[in-house]
Amino acid sequence: MELEKLNEFIEFMKKNNLCELEIEEEGKRIKLKKASPQQQAYFASPAASQKQVEPPPQEKVENLVEVKSPMVGTFYRAPSPGANSYVEVGEVIKPGDIVCIVEAMKLMNEIKAEVGGRVSKILVENGESVEFGQVLFLIEPA
User: Fold this and answer.
1) How far apart are alpha carbons 139 and 117 in whole angstroms?
2) What gap in Å lies between CA 39 and CA 14, rounded to an integer?
């Protein structure tokens, strides 16, 4: 099933205030279920849940490598609330290091650095929604 089609289903759920949606199409079956308020409170910061977030303008700087979100979801800097962030500005990382998590449909997806270097800038706040292809980090290659 295409990501675009999944996003349409999610929008349908939002517009109709549905908590759960199950669809069977061409022999494929998908079940979407909205997180309970307890689950949302666990992951989202209060500030992030109270404001509408627009993706920040994409920043392009020479000699810096962009780490982009591979999916639509919610950005988390740490593996759980209260835990240390995966990376901080100025920290040196190597290829394959986990830099953040993007939650999509209650699945926690670890995002790994493709290059080694120094974290130059973190462009997203913890708990913010991110779009496919949105730049999350800028890395100065080593």
Assistant:
1) 6
2) 17
